[in-house]
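Batch manifest line 728
LIGAND: flavin-adenine dinucleotide
JOB: complex structure
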Amino acid sequence: MSLKHVNAVIVGSGAGGGVVAKELAEAGRSVVLLERGKWFTPFDERKDDLRNQRTCVLGNAFGPDERNPRVYVDASGHEHVISPTHGAYSNNAACVGGGTLSYGAMAWRFMERDFHLRSTYGAVDGSTLDDWPITYADLEPYYEKAEWEIGVSGDDSNNIFRAPRKRPLPMPPLPPTREHQILNPAARRLGLHPFDIPMLRNSVPYNVACEVDAKCGTHNTVIPKAIETGNCELRCECIVREILTSDSGRAAGVAYYDSDGRLQEQSADVVVVSCAAIESARLLLNSTSRLFPNGLGNRYDWVGRNLQGHAYTGAIGLFDHETYDDLGPGASIAVCDFNHGNLGFVSGGMLANEFIRLPYQFASRTAAGIPRWGAGHKDFVRRYYRSSISVMGPMQEMPVFDSRVQVDPKVKDHWGIPVARLSGHRHQNDLLGTNFMSAKAEAWLKEAGAATVIRSGPISLDGPSGGQHQAGTCRMGNDPKTSVVDKYCRVHEVDNLYVIDGSVHPNNGGFNPVLTIMAIAYYASANLVKTRKGMGAT
Amino acid sequence: MQPTLRLNRRAFLQAALTAAAAAGAGVACSRNGSPWRFFTLDQARTLASMVDQIIPPDQDAGAVWAGVVNYIDRQLCGPYQALQETYRYGLGAVDQTSQSNYGKVFADLQSHQQIELLHRLEEGKAPSGAWKQLSSAEFFGYVVDHTMQGFYGDPRHGGNREGVSWKMLNLPYPPIRGRVRSDLSKPRSG
Ligand SMILES: Cc1cc2nc3c(=O)[nH]c(=O)nc-3n(C[C@H](O)[C@H](O)[C@H](O)COP(=O)(O)OP(=O)(O)OC[C@H]3O[C@@H](n4cnc5c(N)ncnc54)[C@H](O)[C@@H]3O)c2cc1C
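JOB STATUS: finished
ARTIFACT:
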């Protein structure tokens, strides 16, 4: 059965897809936005410390569920079928808003050098590191648009390393927490440049987010706006199986299973894939046909390659006095002194105090020097829960060609669709960088007066990276032989097919990636609207 | 934060089995003369002695008082259904190890003997043929983690009775108030 033809069908309503939906709908294009998950409201977002997207020991509150397994190949080559609550699954979310419904909401702009790492540091052995086909300056207006339309609070004026911005952030930072007050003077004494982390959170009444919804994601900003135009239809619980192509090699639409499990076909002038790095690669690879026997965009075997994320390390400081206040979100102060220019390895990352650690998270954290159980463990938790500060940061990872998403030849999901298969390893540079960053976190905490500091242990290079910051699997580039999409996120070999999400990042910054994903979505949408004036004409 | 990629093979297999269990192939939870959903009285007694060593009572309540056994029993008939066999086997193996080393079941040992045995289980050094299908270290790892969940997690999941651990940590309820304290029953202003 086929449904009414539209100008654009967008698969996935997360950070990337949500923004594209609004931009196309506001430009008068007819849009269908397909999302495999549900639409939650603030009333559904019941806080649950053991069942959420970060601590999922009792399940993922915002999906996906057990019907969506993946295959993980470990360092010794063994295959394992894993469920979405497993650490190696690399889950983000399955709901309207995607990761932006439940994210911590740090809103970073990448730095200028992050867009030309290869020219800055040279080629890196064992890595496919390359420059982006666009620069920071190309994205700057769209970073600004994301900050103002979706809503960011913070103050990065003391960050002398930040890339130039034309406009300040729309909202002031939240008032400083106790941790902030302890860490700020210590950083200054060390000659660092601490500042208030930009956050997609309302510090004052702002935009369309409702009163109980102080955090801004795409589900409560751009997606409702897209729907208000009357041009965008959001369909939830729709699992897209494949992208359909015509005999001439163009994208014709998508086939999906609706909420009743019925197979539907939605035709469109343009198909936009925004499923996040692992599922976007899976969808392209599952879309095989006579003309595209290896999947769409995959002529040179680059789809699914370079899966990356962030190795996250740092240190925890134990204090003789209380450091705690119960003011969410916790993370509030950062430094960018270590993102670039470090000796002995490529790039680096920002360091920030962590989000509030709930009691189970704190109690289950193991490290050398902390008893794991028994009277000693109980004493430790009782003594330090309110007297500890954690400083951590995301290390910019080196892309590795063999860290990849494939589709598994045997295992299928509940709908009979071949699942993603993850394999590979991390780059040695990630280990050098995280060791360095952990040492810097330790120094900061010591200066802040911590009596004892416990560093994160060295990371393991086994297995691919990925996780909530997953990126890189459909690299953006000028050369069709070494990338999947062009500088406007258009798949090189299919004129009317786009990938617009974290997949396109050639490298992922020393920052949480979501604001960059949103900025690229605004930028790619602007080009799409401009170059496809009469969408429909082919 | 990035989830760690420390993996063990058994967890993989179990995850793979979860879907099957959820689809009805698994063992149902029933009472069979025990007040628990899953455990027999003996299993619950062994587990109780273990969890009270993992988080012992002192000036604040311990794991048993906080309802950790109830928490685990409940999850084994829910999200942890795939771990039923692990618990059945593991608790039996703990008692067997205890019998062969001390001539008594675990719950009847003196406290210092229990601690000694748990250390050996943790290090995988329990000298007994009881651990053929499952390593003692792995089983102990599950019990430690689930005890932390039941003691420090939200009372709604069946443990942390009366919010006892949060009181111990001097935390308000709920633990994070956040910044926005709006009352939805009132009309919006502005
Ligand atoms: C707990 C948590 C905290 C985080 N904190 C931060 C932070 O502080 N700062 C930051 O920058 N980032 C953070 N992130 C990461 C951030 O949310 C992601 O980087 C971002 O959402 C990725 O955007 P995306 O568009 O690539 O994919 P997503 O936002 O994941 O959206 C993809 C969407 O596609 C849907 N989909 C996938 N496959 C299909 C299909 N076949 N059919 C239909 N729909 C499909 C998915 O259900 C999903 O909704 C956090 C994430 C989590 C989970």
